[in-house]
Design a protein that fits this description.
The model has no long low-confidence stretch (mean pLDDT 89). The longest helix has 17 residues, at 67-83. Strand 1 (2-4) and strand 2 form a beta hairpin. Helix content is 53%, strand content 5%. It is mainly α and 116 residues long. The N and C termini lie far apart (47 Å). It has a two-stranded antiparallel ribbon. The protein has two domains: 2-64, Helicase, Ruva Protein, domain 3, CATH 1.10.8; 68-113, 30s ribosomal protein s13, domain 2 (Irregular), CATH 4.10.910.10. The protein has helices spanning 15-20, 27-37, 50-63, 67-83, 87-94, 108-113; strands spanning 2-4, 7-9. The protein is elongated and about 50 Å long. The chain contains six helices and two strands.
């Protein structure tokens, strides 16, 4: 098992699949990482040498916000919107869709769970 950023990654998974299991890293992030470090994203995690794993960790630390820090930033942004009483903040507070989606026939679940 490969352990990166509080996440166990199975050695038979490809680098692309393994790294996307880390919160905050997606497919495009893995492609940027593999291009800049010059290795194939189709390699297996078990085939990586410890030096390659440390290079991956250093690159991720330098270029991406991941894990609990990213979750904390998202939560702070939502709290800020609610504090300044913006439209988005009020929608967050009521548990309704934020980005102009239709609510007459859709989003029934969120309206039923949070009935104010």
């Amino acid at each position: 098992m490969v352990y990166i950023f509080n996440q166990y990654i199975h050695p038979k998974k490809t680098v692309k699949k393994g790294l996307t299991s880390i919160y905050g890293i997606g497919n495009s992030s893995v492609e940027k990482l593999s291009y800049s470090l010059c290795f194939n994203s189709g390699m297996r995690m078990g085939k990586l040498r410890p030096t390659q794993i440390s290079l991956i960790c250093k690159y991720i630390m330098a270029n991406f916000t991941i894990g609990s820090q990213l979750k904390k930033n998202i939560r702070q942004n939502i709290q800020r919107c609610m504090k300044i009483r913006s439209y988005r903040g009020s929608r967050h507070k009521r548990g309704l869709p934020l980005r102009g989606q239709r609510t007459h026939t859709n989003s029934r679940t969120c309206r039923r769970i949070r009935n104010y």
